C-alpha cells in the first residue's frame, strides 16, 4: 500500500506573522477599551465611598503579585509589570485626576524614573525640594500622592508631619514586587489623605518620640518583631520611624517601652502598607530563545 504524501509545511511569511500581530493587537486594544467602559461605574462606587483619590494600594499590591506570578514566556517581567502599572495608574487618574509630588533632594533621576514606572506619563509629576514640601503639597490637595524615599539618608524627622488625625499618612511602599534588578527599584513610600479601605494593614508604621535615646528601645522594637527604619532629632528629643507587623497596636509599644524604662515615649500611627513581596530571582530575568 502506498503511503499518502505528508503535506509540506510552508514557512510563515512576514505578512502572515504581521497579520497575526495585527489580530492580537486589535483584540488587546478592544479589551483595554472594554476595561475603560467600566470607569463610570467605578467612579460612582468611589464617590459613594467619599471621593478623593481613587488609588487603592491594597488591591494593586494583590494585582501586581498575581500578574508576576502567572507570567511566563519571553517577555521580561519588568516590561509586563511596567505595562500594567501604566494601565492601572492611568485608570486611577481617569477616575479622579491626581498628581504625584516627589522629593528630589536625593537626586531627581531616580525619583522621576520611579514615578514614571509606577504612575506612567499621564499622571503629572511635580518635583519638590524636601520631604516637608511634598507632605505640605499632599496635605493641601484633595487627592494627590506624595513620593518619599523609604531608605537611605533622610532629611530630618519628616515622618512627624504625618502625626495627627487630619495629617496625610503613608498608604503604600513601592515597588509592590521587589527584586534585585528592578528597573525602578528605589524603595519609596506613598503618602496621601487615606481613604478608609485603601491601604493594606500588613505592616503598621509609627512615629515614636522619646526625650532621649535609650539602648532599651531597639530591644523593645525587636521583641515586638518591629524594625527601626530611621531616627532623627525632633522637638528637643528624638523621633523614630518604626515598622511593625499589623497586629502590633500603638498602646502595646507604649506599654513595652514604659516597662523597659523608656519614659515619656509617645507612639503615634503614621500609616501602613502591604507586606513586602520579593519575586524569586530566577523568574525575573530575560530568557533568550533556546537558553
Ligand atoms: O479596584 C479599584 O478600586 C479600581 O479603581 C480599579 C483599579 C484598576 O484599574 O484595576 C484602579 C485603581 C485602583 O488603585 C485599583 C485598581
From TrEMBL:
PROSITE patterns: CHORISMATE_MUT_2. The lineage of its organism: Bacteria, Pseudomonadati, Pseudomonadota, Alphaproteobacteria, Hyphomicrobiales. Pfam families: CM_2. It is an enzyme of class 5 (isomerase). Residues 8-99 form the Chorismate mutase domain. One of its GO terms (biological process) is chorismate metabolic process. It comes from the Bacteria. GO terms for molecular function: chorismate mutase activity. This is chorismate mutase.
Amino acid at each position: 500500500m502506498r503511503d499518502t504524501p505528508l503535506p509540506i509545511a510552508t514557512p510563515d511569511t512576514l505578512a502572515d506573522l504581521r497579520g497575526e500581530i495585527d489580530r492580537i493587537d486589535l483584540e488587546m486594544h478592544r479589551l483595554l477599551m472594554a476595561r475603560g467602559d467600566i470607569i463610570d461605574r467605578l467612579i460612582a462606587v468611589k464617590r459613594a465611598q467619599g471621593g478623593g483619590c481613587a488609588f487603592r494600594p491594597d488591591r494593586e499590591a494583590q494585582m501586581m503579585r498575581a500578574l508576576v506570578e502567572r507570567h511566563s514566556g519571553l517577555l521580561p517581567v519588568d516590561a509586563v509589570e511596567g505595562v500594567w502599572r501604566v494601565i492601572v495608574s492611568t485608570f486611577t487618574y481617569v477616575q479622579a485626576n491626581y498628581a504625584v509630588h516627589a522629593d528630589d533632594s536625593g537626586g531627581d533621576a531616580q525619583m522621576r524614573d520611579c514615578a514614571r514606572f509606577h504612575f506612567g506619563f499621564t499622571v503629572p509629576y511635580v518635583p519638590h525640594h524636601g520631604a516637608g514640601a511634598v507632605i505640605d503639597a499632599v496635605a493641601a490637595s484633595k487627592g494627590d500622592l506624595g513620593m518619599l524615599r523609604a531608605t537611605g539618608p533622610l532629611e530630618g524627622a519628616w515622618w512627624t508631619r504625618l502625626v495627627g488625625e487630619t495629617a496625610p499618612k503613608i498608604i503604600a511602599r513601592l515597588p509592590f514586587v521587589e527584586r534585585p534588578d528592578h528597573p525602578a527599584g528605589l524603595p519609596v513610600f506613598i503618602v496621601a489623605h487615606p481613604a478608609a479601605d485603601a491601604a493594606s494593614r500588613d505592616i503598621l508604621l509609627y512615629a515614636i518620640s522619646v526625650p532621649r535615646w535609650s539602648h532599651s528601645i531597639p530591644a523593645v522594637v525587636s521583641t515586638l518583631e518591629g524594625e527601626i527604619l530611621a531616627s532623627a532629632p525632633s522637638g528637643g528629643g528624638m523621633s523614630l520611624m518604626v515598622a511593625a507587623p499589623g497586629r502590633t497596636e500603638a498602646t502595646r509599644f507604649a506599654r513595652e517601652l514604659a516597662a523597659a524604662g523608656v519614659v515619656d515615649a509617645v507612639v503615634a500611627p503614621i500609616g501602613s502598607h502591604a507586606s513586602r513581596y520579593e519575586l524569586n530571582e530566577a523568574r525575573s530575568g530575560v530568557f533568550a530563545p533556546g537558553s
